[in-house]
Amino acid sequence: LPRSVSGIQATSDSLHLGNYIGALQQFVEHQEHHDAFYFIANMHAITVEQDPAELRERTLRTAAQFIAAGIDPERSTIFVQSHVDAHPKLSWILECTTGLGEAQRMTQFKDKSAKKENVSLGLLTYPALMAADILLYQADVVPVGEDQRQHLELTRNLAERFNHRYGATFTVPEAGILKETAKIYDLQDPTSKMSKSAANPAGLINILDEPKALTKKFKSAVTDNDTVIAFDPEAKPGVSNLLTIYSALTGDSVDSIVAEYEGKMYGHLKVGLAEIAVEKLAPVRERTLELLDDRAELERILLAGADKAQAIADETVRVAYERVGFLHR
Ligand code: ATP
Ligand code: MG
């Protein structure tokens, strides 16, 4: 089976609808026909300041949301990044394979560092750790949102560069980015990516929001002064974002949704979408809360996942160490 590998940062209590549509839905789909590895990226999380108790809690909450969304720990390997030492080991080698200018050109680094007074070195080297996360498992495909395309491209370059310099070591992975749903926008600011670190919480749909809160956020989504429901991301970013979300959650084409709402008002679309989102997300919320009632079981799943991940990752590190000329121990 081809291998699918991806992760989500433990940077919030709840994942949001962008994570759900851009990443989690694909993870669930991939597990049908891939050997899948999904991890909670707690090491990436500390590239910006985190409260330790909160980080620990969010790591478990994120794991619970993975499973609640449909990732089956019997079929897919779910683990915590920091449980597998191979990640920082290979990351170091890849940092030494990456140019400083190359790292500085990453838009995520530019965006995240522009907003900060104290920029950590880890924020700059983030893409090398991400490349390690992927290359350790010889991933064939990496399901992510559009915002990670540039990091994926760098990962591919690093794999090729290393292979060229030291001999074939890493599989060069493909980006698993679904064109239509790869970028979900903030409901209050539909030209900005929906993000955990959103400026306005009203624009952020959390998968653990209560149904009432979800409905309220959809109803107050920013649209435009026009009245026609049409898909036009340039001229009508708000309505187009709602149509994208609607399509991603139902599997219906945008065209068929536009046809269904022909002659209706924005309010109808918002209410219809709110109902669909509640139907989809309320069970995920309930299942997450149930899973969080049995933390020992969650921890057991994560430790079993770490064992499976480690066996593969350690072998890749062994080969990489050999290739770069590190002395046998
Ligand atoms: P942060 O603001 O802390 O970076 P984030 O919301 O970007 O958080 P990540 O953990 O960095 O979340 O990303 C996890 C996955 O979710 C990645 O694959 C990323 O591409 C995807 N993703 C994040 N935001 C969106 C979005 N708005 N639309 C589609 N996919 C998204
Ligand atoms: Mg992010």
Automatic annotation (TrEMBL):
Enzyme class of the recorded protein, top EC level: ligase
Binding site for ATP: Q9, A10, T11, G18, N19, G145, E146, D147, I184, K193, M194, S195, K196, S197
Motif 'KMSKS' region, residue range(s) on this chain: 193-197
Catalyzed reaction equations: tRNA(Trp) + L-tryptophan + ATP = L-tryptophyl-tRNA(Trp) + AMP + diphosphate + H(+)
Entry's localization field: Cytoplasm
Entry-linked InterPro entries: aa-tRNA-synth_Ic, Rossmann-like_a/b/a_fold, Trp-tRNA-ligase, Trp-tRNA-ligase_bac-type, Trp-tRNA_synthetase
Binding locations of L-tryptophan: D133
General function of this protein: Catalyzes the attachment of tryptophan to tRNA(Trp).
HAMAP family, per database record: Trp_tRNA_synth_B (MF_00140_B)
Family: Belongs to the class-I aminoacyl-tRNA synthetase family.
Name of this chain's protein: Tryptophan--tRNA ligase
Organism whose genome encodes this protein: Brevibacterium samyangense
Gene: trpS
